Amino acid sequence: MDLNSGYPFWAVKSGLLSTYPRLENDLTCEVVVIGGGISGALIAHYLTEANIETVVLEKREIAGGSTSASTALLQYEIDTPLTELVKLVGEQNAVRAYQLCRDAIDKVAEVAQKVGVADHFSYKTSLYLASRRWHVKQLRQEYELRKAKGFNLDFLEKGAISERFSFSAPAALYSYNAGEVDAFQLAHGLFRHAAKHGAQIFDRTSAKEWQANSDGVTVTTDTGCRIHAKYLILAAGYEAQNYIKQSLVKFRSSYAIASELLSDFNGWYEQCLIWESARPYVYMRTTSEGRAIIGGEDDRIDIPAKRDALLERKAAKLSKRFNDFFPHIPLHVDYRWAGTFGETSDGLPYIDHLPDQPRILLALGYGGNGITYSIVAAELLRDRLCQRPNPDAAIFRLDRH
After folding, report:
1. Considering the entire predicted model, what is its pTM?
2. What is the pLDDT of residues 47-101, one digit of tens each?
3. Which of 88, 105, 197, 255 registers the highest number of CB atoms within 10 A of its CB?
4. Is there a single domain that holds both residue 63 and residue 152?
5. Helices H, strands E: what count in the chain?
6. Within this chain, do residues 50 and 160 fall inside the same structural domain, yes or no?
7. How far apart are CA 106 and CA 123, in angstroms?
8. Are 78 and 97 in contact (CB under 8 A)?
């Protein structure tokens, strides 16, 4: 699958950080992970820390798929508001899913520190705007529910927004638990650390097929090598659907631009994360070196050639939206790109095993919270492999609907 268009900022900025060999011989291990993006990296880290013998296969260069295109806003809010998620999965599961995403932000900070890439993570606040006047009632209900469940946020009226920002909106939620990260650097840091502690990482190596039985899994690569493992974890992001019979996700395209270095951020309070209640929505963040990243203009296109053809037009729209928000910040676009992402019916990931195949595990962090979902998946799958019951696993099972 062709996941990206244009030149994703993170990969161009950092270049080729590290390379790994192709697999050239048969192997035996406890767990083989298919996917060398941020999901596979976090899983490899957690498993290696638990002394689980792990092999990772990535068909591209490490972090060369959707991870390189991620804008990497870290928020506990998922695309489905808590008030709506309660209706879909029940209050207990909905609140717990939000809590897990909130806690995952701190865990991203911890692993970034541990693997030596702490400079590429920052804690942030987050502004969620009411895009229309008639969205205010729902935002108020969302605020009251989150506040009652212990989340740290404020409800901002129109005047309070204008005092802090160079724009206004009918209302907004201002959350104090958020962050931003360079997912490309984080993935490489995690893999370097895992490799030093015993994980075997292979890029440019594709899993062609597998066979599973009650004793384990045999994976055959595109070069004919075989890996014999007790378990296989599918962490190949949006390409994992190629390996699964069930239709779990609707594919979309999202577009992004990165500015040249900015001299100031006039009117951008605390350089917080910004997103809105419209669907699809525009989202914004800054980078540590002083750029702005703006994403959105999502559409239903999942054909690479059509996505490529729309990139310039979408980038121009995103640039205009930024100028509407921040008329006093001159914006010159340095990078423009697009990537494939997926949506589930409730906005939650799938972390489970394939039906009737308990040796094939899934870590599918679909939606706008892929990195925080990947933290949750890494913990749940580690606990499963260590035979430690985790009650949170039921929230993300395949048959939850």
Report:
1. 0.95
2. 999 999 999 999 989 998 888 888 999 999 999 999 999 999 999 999 999 999 9
3. 255
4. no
5. 10, 18
6. no
7. 9
8. yes
